[in-house]
Design brief:
This protein is an alpha+beta fold and 312 residues long. The chain is elongated. The termini are far apart.
């Protein structure tokens, strides 16, 4: 409202009227004329009084706004947590996509799951958030976007326990690509000074290994605990044991067992052996040939001197 002469006159008249009503409120209300004047004043100024009360109510509630602020802060924290989960889901999505590519190449039907716990101490196990209610059964293969993780050992209605392929007691039948020669790998177990490499032993004494050979799971009886064709690892170092009749090597697993997140349980095996369809391309440059010579336990040179073990 602009400050004009007419505006000032109106405000002056209203002020005089308000003072008059105040004076009337302290006089005897028996006169009908006075009662009519009071009623008219209430009609004219009631809206202004209600507006003033509304403003005072808003101002009065401002003192209790601290609880509202606290609620908003909680909502902000929740939004930040949701954002972090969304970012984590993007990483999980990338891992899920790689896993589905392997499953598609091997013709496996997999059930996606998340790792929710890891075994303590020397236990080479993880717990997944799927169980019998989701169709999981013991002795089923578990893989991720890189390759073999392990197999299911026990199942509850909502969770299951997986024994990792790195367990010291783990024995996995494997086939060498592309020759198809058979052997088995054993897990390194959890040792402080361990390299994390699996140990490969070939079945046939005529089998020849070289650094860079890739391994996949060989067929198990009834596809339990391992379905065929799942990538296992790559040969990084040949091991020659004095007195041994078969070739051996150290194998670096494809899976990073220290960073498991999204995995898949193979709930339906492939209709036929996929062989090497899921094998990833070889890295460039490939592994260099390294040979380690070890003494077979109990073997000695003539004269009782142990066989030497040269450094690689």
């Amino acid at each position: 409202m602009r400050d004009t002469r007419r505006t000032r006159v109106v405000l002056f008249v209203l002020l005089i009227a308000a003072l008059g009503l105040i004076a009337l409120s302290y006089t005897n209300g028996s006169s009908s004329a006075l009662r009519d004047a009071r009623a008219a004043g209430s009609t004219v100024f009631g809206g202004a009084e209600h507006g003033a009360k509304s403003v005072s109510d808003v101002l009065g509630t401002s003192g209790g706004s601290s609880s509202q602020v606290a609620t908003l802060q909680k909502e902000v924290l929740q939004l930040r947590a949701d954002l972090s989960e969304a970012r984590l889901s993007k990483a999980d999505y990338a891992e899920l996509r790689k896993m589905l590519l392997i499953a598609g190449a091997g013709r496996y039907k997999v059930l996606a799951a998340s790792v929710i716990a890891a075994g303590l101490g020397y236990q080479q196990t993880v717990t997944l958030d799927v169980g019998s209610a989701d169709g999981v059964r013991p002795q089923e293969t578990v893989l991720n976007g890189e390759g073999l993780v392990g197999y299911v050992t026990s199942v509850s209605s909502t969770t299951c326990t997986v024994s990792l392929a790195t367990d010291g007691a783990s024995v996995v039948g494997v086939a060498v690509a592309p020759s198809g020669q058979l052997g088995w790998v054993t897990g390194p177990g959890k040792v402080v000074s361990g390299s994390g490499l699996m140990h490969l032993t070939m079945l046939n004494s005529a089998a020849v290994l070289k650094a860079g050979d890739q391994l996949v799971t060989a067929a198990s009886v009834n596809d339990k605990p391992y379905v065929p064709g799942v990538p296992v690892g790559i040969v990084t170092k040949l091991v020659v044991t004095n007195g041994s009749l078969t070739a051996a090597a150290l194998v670096r697993p494809y899976v990073d067992f220290g960073a498991l997140s999204v995995v898949g349980v193979v709930i339906v095996p492939p209709g036929h052996d996929p062989r090497f369809a899921a094998v990833p391309p070889l890295p460039h440059p490939g592994p260099t040939v390294t040979v380690t010579v070890t003494a077979k336990p109990g073997s000695h040179r003539p004269g009782g001197t142990p066989s030497p073990t040269p450094s690689p």
